[in-house]
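Render this sequence as a predicted structure.
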Amino acid sequence: MKNVAFLLFSSLILSCTSSKPTGTSEVPYTIAQNYFVKNDVKENNAFKITSQAELDASYGIGRTMSDNSKPTVIDFSKSFAIAVLAPVSDEISGIRIEYLQKGKDSLFLQYKIEKGQKQSFSTRQTKLLIVDKQYDLPLSVSEK
């Protein structure tokens, strides 16, 4: 009986964990700093940005008085970006990238929107991933 309970518990744990696509490899990326998503961007998922014009259409520069608040430079001749956007909320505390994987013909991105305590204001969380152009393939996105 203990073995049956253990097997049921094990299968439940395995079904709840995220499984990465088979036949894939990790894709390195850098998180861009000091950008904010513009209010008129309607996307609530993830999408690729392949030029400075596309970046400027969706993001603004979020600088402060600090010397280290310069935005991360994205050289679109060598890289592209993946924008991950959460909806406007008073409960979302962040976005966690679960994985970015390269398959034979596409990239696989899985992320999780992390919820926190209700706040007295609403924000829109975003992550901007910088990826080397050698991985520029069609993007498949899933939210965990």
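Summary. Confidence is low (pLDDT under 50) at residues 1-18. The chain has one domain: 21-143.
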